[in-house]
Amino acid sequence: MKNRTDLISSVMKAADGEVVGKIRMQKIFYLLEQLGLNADLTFSYHHYGPYSEDLARSLDYAEMVEHAIKEEPRDTSSGSTFIAYLLKKDCGAVSHIGEIEWDKAKSYISTMKKETSIVIELAATIHWLRHKEKVEDWKAELKRRKTSKAEPALVARAEALLRGLQLD
Predict the structure, then answer these.
(1) pTM above 0.70?
(2) Rounded Cα gap, residues 150 and 2, in angstroms
C-alpha cells in the first residue's frame, strides 16, 4: 500500500493539496489511468460511473495508517455532507505521477478540478461507455443511466473535458 500512498500523495500535491469529493477523486484517478498513470487500479461500473474499490481502500490506508491525507467532512448549503481530501504530508519533489510526467499530470488534474463533480462524473462515464463497454449509442445509454444529470449542456461540457484531456 505504501506505493499507492505515494501515488495518492503525488496526485494530491498536483491538485494543490485538496480534492473535493469522493466522486471527483475516483474520476480523477480513472481518467488519469486512461492517460497512462498505470497505477494497477481495477475499475468497475457503479452508480456514479467508474469506481475502484482498490482506490477506496488505498485512500483509507493513506489516511488511517500513513497519515498522508485527511478526509474532512464539509456541509453543503442544502445541508448534505461531502468529503474533502487534504494533503497532510508533503511528498517532496515529484518528477512523475505514476508514468505521467509531473507537468502533464498537474495540468490534467487542474483541468479536471475546474469542472463540477457532475461534469467529471459524466466525462468518466462517457469514456467508460465508449471504450470499456463499447456502447454504440452511448448518448442514449448515458441518458438512461444518468437521467437527471445527462442534460445536453452538461454532456457537452463533459465531452469538451474529454477533448481537453485528449481522451475523446
Answers:
(1) yes
(2) 38
